[in-house]
């Protein structure tokens, strides 16, 4: 682990670097101060988030919420379709042949 002085020195060095950098760290406060864009590797794809680490967290949480709502809607629709199948099966069994 780097002490605060070393982290500040590293931030100054990295801040003068204008090319893309790959930084791997668990130091979230460092990411929050330093990162401009976050690229997440998920499901064998790259997902780019702008607006720094906090922007990444907001976007990630919004995406998770959207996926959860879509799943809940899908479950509701599936239950409705299942109910229609059962209802129609009962109705069709009452039709004289």
From TrEMBL:
Stored InterPro entries: ABCF_ATPase, P-loop_NTPase
Organism of this sequence: Corynebacterium variabile
Descriptive protein name: Tylosin resistance protein TlrC
């Amino acid at each position: 682990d780097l002490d605060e002085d070393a982290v500040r020195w590293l931030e100054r060095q990295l801040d003068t670097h204008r090319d893309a950098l790959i930084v791997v760290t668990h130091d979230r406060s460092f990411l929050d101060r330093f990162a401009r864009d976050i690229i997440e590797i998920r499901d064998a794809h790259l997902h780019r988030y702008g607006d720094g680490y906090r922007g990444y967290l907001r976007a990630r949480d919004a995406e998770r919420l959207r996926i959860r709502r879509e799943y809940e809607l899908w479950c509701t629709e599936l239950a409705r379709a299942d109910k229609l199948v059962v209802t129609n099966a009962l109705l069709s069994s009452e039709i004289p042949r």
